[in-house]
Each structure stands twice: as C-alpha cells, then as structure tokens.
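Sanity check

After download, print the first record. It should look like this:
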Amino acid sequence: MYLSNIESVPGKTVVEFYGVAQGSSVRAKHLGKDFLAGLKNLFGGELKAYTELLNESREEAVERLIKQAESMGANAIVNVRFSTSTITVGASEIFAYGTAVKVQ
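Expected structure tokens:
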C-alpha cells in the first residue's frame, strides 16, 4: 500500500478513485504513567509515556486506514492527514484519513 501526503504517488498514475478512507484509535492514559508524567511536567522535559501512547495510537489508526482502503480495492492512499482530539479527560483520539485510489 502506497501512502502519500500529497495528491499523487510520485512515478505512478491514479487510474481509479474509491473515496475517503479512514481509521481511528482512542487511547486512555495509564494511571501510573499519568502520575509520573505529572511529576515530569513539574520539572520539564519530554513526557515519554505520552509520546509512546501517541505513537502506538497513530500506528493503529494508520493500520485501520490501510485496512479500509484495501477493502475498497485501493492500492494507494493519497492526501493522508491526521487529526487529534480529546474524547474525555485522559483519553485522546487520533484520526487518520485520506483518499483511497488505485495507481499504476
């Protein structure tokens, strides 16, 4: 599966259009990691537990995006974008979307 954040796949020609494909992942913070991150927040620095959480969530959203595009018959997704939102206190969503196409 080709993924591109532009309107095409360089060196390929779009031959079919399938529409918007999407994938999302909602994850909650771990209470223990949240406490440690709160301490880290007092002293500054990267909140590695949150970075890992977002990376895992993004990977899962992309896997779901690809799965949906494949089910539509696509072999590429162009204009891939990400969006994040807070669902509730301690839980966030990463939403991945793009245009499912077939390229040659």
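If your output differs, re-run the checksum step. Summary of this record's structure: DSSP finds two helices and four strands in the chain.
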